[in-house]
Design a protein that fits this description.
Length: 180
């Protein structure tokens, strides 16, 4: 009886091995492999998701010394860090068709120890952002550079002058993060 069961078990095991090797051969493709062609990146590809984010930073002059401001885009908002102890969250609109841009809306929540007071003032300029105005547009130049178009350029220039560093840069650069 034991020999019969052992023989039956051996037949079943061998038939399973033959079945699995046959299915592998059927799945294999014959012929040259096609190279994967990546589609051009869109700014939406660089939006942060739960557990991961892409940090974009300004390139400052040696006199300015720091790599602030920094911006991270999410599905419905952007988090901007103006310096080490000043964060602003702005609502955004992301357009997938045509221009592929992100618009930053002048509605914000802030968390700071040292605020940038010039952001909430006209600074002597007639045209400055008010609540719910589209403040700026962000578009991808390449996979590591974003160009910014400001809708209040005179006010932006004045804020940058008053703060003595580039609060609102024309370009942001993808920050290199070493994961090792």
């Amino acid at each position: 009886m034991k020999q019969l069961l052992l023989g039956l078990l051996l037949v079943i095991c061998l038939s399973c091995q033959n079945h699995s090797s046959n299915s592998n051969t059927r799945k294999r493709k014959v012929g040259p492999q096609k190279a994967k062609v990546e589609s051009p990146k869109k700014i939406g590809d660089f939006m942060g998701h739960e557990g991961s984010s892409f940090v974009w930073t300004a390139e400052q002059t040696p006199e300015e010394g720091s790599s602030y401001p920094k911006i991270v885009f999410y599905n419905e908002y952007a988090r901007m860090q103006f310096h080490g102890q000043c964060y602003y969250w702005f609502f955004t609109h992301h357009y997938y068709t045509g221009t592929d841009k992100i618009e930053l809306v002048w509605t914000f929540k802030k968390d700071f120890v040292y605020d940038i007071e010039s952001l909430s003032q006209s600074n002597g300029v007639k045209k400055f952002p008010h609540y719910d105005d589209v403040f700026s547009e962000y578009s991808l130049v390449n996979d590591s550079v974003i160009k910014v178009k400001y809708h209040f350029p005179e006010w932006v220039k004045k804020v940058n002058e008053l703060e003595k560093y580039t609060v609102f840069p024309d370009y942001f650069y993808l920050e290199n993060i070493d994961l090792n």
